[in-house]
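re: ur question from earlier - yeah i can do the single chain one, its not a big deal. heres the input i used so u can compare w yours
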Amino acid sequence: MFRKWDANMKFIGRSAELSALARMYEKNSFEMMILYGRRRVGKTTLLNRFAEGKNVLFYTGVESKDSENLIEFGRAVFSHFNNVTAAGIEFRSYQDVLAYITNSVKRDASGKREVIIIDEYPYIAENAPELASLLQREIDREWKTLNIMLILCGSSIAFMEEEVLGQKSPLYGRRTGQIDLPPFDYLTSAEFVPAYTPEEKAIVYGITGGIPRYLSLIDPEKTLEGNILALYFDASGYFYEEPKNMLRQEFRDVSLYFAILGAIGSGSTQLSEISDKTGFDSAKTAQAVRKLEAVRIIRKDIPILNEKNRKLNQYSIQDGMFRFWFRFVAKGTGAIERTYGNEYYAAMVRPYIHEFMGPVFETICQEYTFRTGVTGRYGSPITRIGKWRGADPVLKCPSDIDVVGINEADKTAVIGECKFSNRTFGKEECETLMDRARLLAPYRIEKYLMFSLGGFSDWVAEYAQNDSTVVLVSIDSLYSI
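and the output i got, formated as tokens:
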């Protein structure tokens, strides 16, 4: 069951974003913050937290093609400045609403800070294209001299980047700050399930992608498996219909995007493969893939140090919930809808969870490596992190390195191998990683990082004791920084 946020619930994460908003609030001048990010990432929760104890006019736009937003926004404005209900009050235009805000602020002799938050701004502006120009004019003529903090927030990333932040937007150059709100990292995600083991915390991160709304659905009093079964493998579970619900909010032709995600989820990583798998022509596929990238459901994985070789780029599902759904749930809908979700999970999901977690574990290890390496813990400070893919000229076959952290200035690197398995990290994995160091020439390898869920063999442990370039990182260590 979804745990509704209230004042008594622990607020998790977002300290950097709250600090940025607080710094802006403390300035006694006009400020304009643009806040955006994908759906379910916690923008409104962040704004509600920031608004606590402040003088705030807060309006959330609704998806409507009529004058509903004008009417309701106008009533919110009237109610805020007069401290009365505004039933029956209607403004004729957004220009009149903005002018009313200006006059109300000017009449207030106290000079108090006025915070105006317009959440889901794209819902309003898409049906009132004049609003951006009206805001620009009011800012330039009046608000720039008033004690106003304006926050425009939206889930339509493309709209916010192009129609609000873009150079062609009337609002271009007016913003004094912007926040592109990301999902939580693996450490912050773990705060939602503090009593879980490190392995379970990693899996929670894997199946939610660090999206705050999804993390809030995990009941920390239940077992991990109990949560997965209730949320994914029950036809009434929240995640069972979530991919379709999300796609309906973003796109008209849901079937097109559903098919593309299905192809990527089943292992197609190149545009040509995706096109062949779905049966759509390459142009249509490419356009749809770009749109899925724009809403941050999929991403183009570009290997570090091989960025110019486009043939090595691969598409993958970026969103953890989508990735888990298309890996497991999509193939089990028949069983789930016939109430055999538990049986399907036991046979077709549980045995493959560690395999599913492989790429997720790589992401976690990359984050850990950057956090610990940026200060110079492994030698030269790490300035970039990623995964390497390319050809091995000696073995004459494709190869990869899970974790590559580099310092471009002095051409040094740390490299790592990640194993999310109950099997111990052994001699073969150790020697393979060290051999692949030659693939990064002319970079000099300072450390070899070996990450393991299942621990390390005696051979590897002894080798690490005698070789200071080898660093062993258990899953417990990943959660103790």
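The first strand starts at residue 31 and ends at 36. not sure if urs matches, ping me
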